[in-house]
Design a protein that fits this description.
With about 450 residues, the chain is mainly beta. Helices cover about 5% and strands about 40% of the residues. The N and C termini lie far apart (about 55 Å).
């Protein structure tokens, strides 16, 4: 235990010292820094990655989870925050205020189905016409609840080539049912599957090529990511080893695996954002991702820990459109919310808690032959601040800037000229205050270039 603590402290100290310069480092940091996210459930639909996650509250010590979040990306490095798309309040039969555990979402025939475990109360299901919701409970009761134990967590759903859908779940045992075409009921008995070596929880069921896979969080603690393979959707399952081995650099894990734009990706969770501020442990987790590769026989090449993996941008970012400010590759220290404590509720998320010398990074922005104008929609309560645009580094070439005055919390558009820049560059929005204010300079809704 002393050795584990020492390694954790050393990592935390090293990360803390780099907190303001992390994007320039080679570390593969978590995808989201403005909230604590866990239990990644990525889903690819019409060329977009929809990343559903659970949400650890900012003051969590143990598991304190009330809602489910959604992020989207088309390049794997810049992610737009869509906020909470469902919560425990959507299940009227559940009266508690905690327990929104690891969900998975899947689309079928234009409907989006979210399978939600509520710790100690089984697995419920919500349905929506859009991935963004609103999600509604069609059953008014759990889809699955084996009341004799608390195993019913971490559902994973896959629709096979013949149209048959399956749901796996469970900790420490693993179960499976065949879902009906309506996706909110099942046929036959719940199947308790034989134990898979090193299996703990968080199964992720999918098919790649002609093989079926069951990835999972391997035996705690610390958890790695293990996997098994089968020629059938209901097994028998053959343990194949680790996608990511157990490591003292994290504690929990929970896999999500997708194919996207010709590459395969493994998502998981860790505590690396929380460790930027402290070496102690609390359940404030973050989602990471890494490119994953298969061998010719279908087995998976083992990955190092997330910080040492690669996650490359798969296409340039287009700035010549309205971009929501909550779209970023890095924004440590910032927050994204719909709730404005000093003004009206906002219909869409916005970036807030913008302090002196913090910055927001959008990677791989394609300026093409050059942008002439930059416009941002911002609101300030008292004094406002300055937004500077730099390329390739926080202190890189400054290409423009806008001053945001006090607007009495009303959003207004501010425009500046841009120095000519061509081609693809990382774009840093660097925030400056004045003598009167260093924190909470302004709120930021959206931006665009022309």
């Amino acid at each position: 235990m002393k050795r584990i603590t020492a390694i954790g402290c050393a990592l935390a100290c090293a990360l803390s010292s780099m907190a303001q310069t992390l994007p320039e480092q080679k570390l593969n940091m978590p995808l989201v820094q403005t909230k604590f996210t866990a239990d990644p459930a990525p889903y690819v639909h019409d060329g977009v990655v929809y990343l559903f996650t659970t949400h650890d509250e900012d003051d969590s010590e143990g598991f304190n989870m009330k809602d489910w979040l959604l992020y989207t990306s088309t390049d794997m490095v810049n992610w737009q925050d869509h906020g909470a798309v469902a919560s425990l309040r959507d299940f009227k039969w559940y009266k508690g205020n905690n327990g929104a555990w690891a969900e998975q979402v899947i689309e079928r025939d234009g409907k989006w189905y979210m399978y939600c475990p509520i710790h100690g109360h089984g697995i419920g299901v919500l349905v929506a016409d859009s991935p963004f919701g609103p999600y509604k409970d069609p059953l008014g009761e759990p889809l699955v609840w084996q009341k004799e134990h608390w195993d019913d967590i971490d559902p994973t759903v896959w629709i096979d080539d013949d149209g048959q859908a399956y749901m796996y779940w469970g900790n420490p045992n693993i179960y499976c049912v065949k879902l009906n075409k309506d996706m909110i009921s099942y046929s036959g008995e719940i199947m308790k599957m034989p134990h898979i070596e090193d299996y703990q929880e968080g199964p992720w069921f999918y098919k790649h090529g002609n093989k079926y896979y069951l990835a999972f969080a391997s035996t705690c603690c610390p958890e790695g990511i293990g996997y098994a393979m089968s020629d059938s959707p209901t097994g028998p399952w053959e343990y194949k080893g680790h996608i990511m081995n157990h490591t003292v650099r994290t504690r929990g894990n929970h896999p999500g695996i997708i194919d996207y734009k010709g590459k395969s990706y493994c998502f998981g969770l860790n505590y690396d954002v929380f460790r930027l501020s402290t070496s102690r442990h609390a359940e404030r987790r973050s989602v990471s991702a890494a490119e994953m590769k298969y061998n010719a026989d279908g087995t998976i090449q083992e990955l190092p820990y997330f910080l040492d993996c690669e996650l490359n941008q798969v296409e340039p970012f287009n700035p010549f459109r309205k971009v929501e400010a909550e779209t970023m590759a890095w924004g440590y220290g910032l927050k994204v919310t719909r709730e404005n404590p000093s003004g009206p509720w906002n219909p869409t998320p916005f970036v807030t808690e913008i302090d002196e010398d913090e910055y927001l990074l959008v990677k791989g922005v394609d300026f093409k032959k050059g942008a002439k104008k930059f416009t941002a929609s911002c609101a300030s309560h008292l004094y406002g601040g300055i937004m500077e645009l730099h390329i390739d580094a926080v202190d890189g070439q400054k290409i423009g800037g806008i001053a945001i005055p006090a607007t009495k919390d009303k959003y207004e558009e501010f425009t500046c000229d841009l120095d000519k820049v061509t081609g693809v560059h990382d774009l840093y929005f660097v925030f400056k205050g004045g003598k009167q204010q260093k924190k909470n300079l302004f709120n930021w809704d959206w931006w665009m270039m022309k």
